[in-house]
Specification:
Blueprint lengths: L3 H7 L2 E10 L9 E15 L2 H4 E4 L2 E4 L3 E6 L9 E4 L5 E11 L4 E8 L3
Antiparallel strand pairs: 1-2, 1-6, 2-5, 3-4, 5-8, 6-7, 7-8
Protein backbone atom coordinates (compact mmCIF):
# COMPACT_ATOMS: atom_id res chain seq x y z
CA UNK A 1 0.00 0.00 0.00
CA UNK A 2 1.29 3.45 -0.92
CA UNK A 3 1.63 6.13 1.69
CA UNK A 4 0.02 9.57 1.06
CA UNK A 5 3.47 11.18 0.96
CA UNK A 6 4.19 9.14 -2.18
CA UNK A 7 1.43 10.98 -4.06
CA UNK A 8 3.23 14.32 -3.68
CA UNK A 9 6.28 12.87 -5.42
CA UNK A 10 4.14 11.58 -8.33
CA UNK A 11 1.96 14.70 -8.79
CA UNK A 12 4.06 16.47 -11.39
CA UNK A 13 1.42 17.75 -13.85
CA UNK A 14 -0.54 20.95 -13.26
CA UNK A 15 -4.04 20.79 -14.77
CA UNK A 16 -6.99 23.13 -15.00
CA UNK A 17 -10.25 21.39 -14.08
CA UNK A 18 -13.14 22.61 -16.24
CA UNK A 19 -16.88 21.97 -16.30
CA UNK A 20 -19.15 22.41 -19.30
CA UNK A 21 -21.59 25.33 -19.24
CA UNK A 22 -24.36 24.69 -21.79
CA UNK A 23 -25.56 27.46 -24.09
CA UNK A 24 -29.13 28.33 -23.10
CA UNK A 25 -29.98 30.14 -26.34
CA UNK A 26 -32.51 28.51 -28.66
CA UNK A 27 -29.88 28.11 -31.39
CA UNK A 28 -27.22 27.05 -28.89
CA UNK A 29 -28.40 23.49 -28.36
CA UNK A 30 -25.41 21.18 -28.02
CA UNK A 31 -23.00 24.09 -27.65
CA UNK A 32 -21.56 25.92 -24.69
CA UNK A 33 -18.38 27.02 -23.01
CA UNK A 34 -15.98 25.63 -20.43
CA UNK A 35 -15.67 27.21 -16.98
CA UNK A 36 -12.65 26.76 -14.71
CA UNK A 37 -13.36 24.90 -11.48
CA UNK A 38 -9.82 24.87 -10.05
CA UNK A 39 -6.15 24.19 -10.77
CA UNK A 40 -4.69 21.01 -9.31
CA UNK A 41 -1.43 19.04 -9.31
CA UNK A 42 -2.07 15.47 -10.50
CA UNK A 43 -0.26 12.24 -11.35
CA UNK A 44 -1.09 10.96 -14.85
CA UNK A 45 -0.29 7.42 -15.97
CA UNK A 46 -1.10 6.58 -19.60
CA UNK A 47 -2.63 3.18 -20.33
CA UNK A 48 -0.56 0.73 -22.33
CA UNK A 49 -1.18 0.99 -26.09
CA UNK A 50 -2.63 -2.51 -26.38
CA UNK A 51 -5.50 -1.47 -24.11
CA UNK A 52 -6.01 1.89 -25.81
CA UNK A 53 -6.71 0.67 -29.34
CA UNK A 54 -9.98 -0.50 -30.81
CA UNK A 55 -11.43 -1.11 -34.24
CA UNK A 56 -14.25 0.93 -35.76
CA UNK A 57 -15.39 0.20 -39.30
CA UNK A 58 -12.09 -1.55 -39.98
CA UNK A 59 -9.95 1.40 -38.84
CA UNK A 60 -7.85 1.36 -35.71
CA UNK A 61 -8.74 4.21 -33.38
CA UNK A 62 -6.63 5.21 -30.40
CA UNK A 63 -8.61 6.70 -27.53
CA UNK A 64 -5.47 7.18 -25.40
CA UNK A 65 -6.92 6.46 -21.95
CA UNK A 66 -5.01 7.35 -18.80
CA UNK A 67 -5.36 7.09 -15.04
CA UNK A 68 -5.28 10.37 -13.09
CA UNK A 69 -4.72 10.64 -9.35
CA UNK A 70 -5.26 13.88 -7.41
CA UNK A 71 -5.71 14.99 -3.83
CA UNK A 72 -9.07 14.05 -2.34
CA UNK A 73 -12.00 16.07 -3.67
CA UNK A 74 -15.45 14.93 -4.65
CA UNK A 75 -16.50 17.89 -6.83
CA UNK A 76 -14.74 16.52 -9.93
CA UNK A 77 -17.03 14.23 -11.93
CA UNK A 78 -17.37 12.52 -15.31
CA UNK A 79 -18.33 15.04 -17.97
CA UNK A 80 -15.68 17.48 -16.78
CA UNK A 81 -12.28 17.80 -18.43
CA UNK A 82 -8.67 18.38 -17.42
CA UNK A 83 -6.42 20.71 -19.43
CA UNK A 84 -2.66 20.38 -18.89
CA UNK A 85 -1.13 23.76 -18.07
CA UNK A 86 2.15 23.27 -19.93
CA UNK A 87 0.87 21.63 -23.14
CA UNK A 88 -2.81 22.60 -23.37
CA UNK A 89 -3.71 18.94 -23.90
CA UNK A 90 -7.33 18.36 -22.87
CA UNK A 91 -8.66 15.08 -21.50
CA UNK A 92 -12.27 14.24 -20.64
CA UNK A 93 -13.10 12.40 -17.45
CA UNK A 94 -14.81 9.15 -18.37
CA UNK A 95 -14.92 7.27 -15.04
CA UNK A 96 -14.49 7.88 -11.33
CA UNK A 97 -13.89 9.17 -8.81
CA UNK A 98 -12.55 6.24 -6.83
CA UNK A 99 -11.37 7.03 -3.30
CA UNK A 100 -7.82 5.85 -2.54
CA UNK A 101 -5.58 5.80 0.51
CA UNK A 102 -8.46 6.21 2.98
CA UNK A 103 -9.61 9.53 1.56
CA UNK A 104 -6.20 11.01 0.83
CA UNK A 105 -6.50 10.89 -2.97
CA UNK A 106 -9.02 10.10 -5.72
CA UNK A 107 -8.50 8.41 -9.07
CA UNK A 108 -10.21 8.99 -12.44
CA UNK A 109 -10.00 7.51 -15.91
CA UNK A 110 -9.61 10.04 -18.71
CA UNK A 111 -9.14 10.00 -22.47
CA UNK A 112 -8.09 12.64 -24.97
CA UNK A 113 -10.65 15.34 -25.63
CA UNK A 114 -11.47 15.54 -29.31
CA UNK A 115 -13.62 18.59 -30.06
Amino acid sequence: MRRPADFASRAHTLVRIERHVPDTALKGAGKGTWSTVDDEWVAIEDARPSRADRLADGFEISRRPAKVEMRYRMDVLPGMRLVEADTGRARKIIAGPAELERGQTVEFMVEDWIA
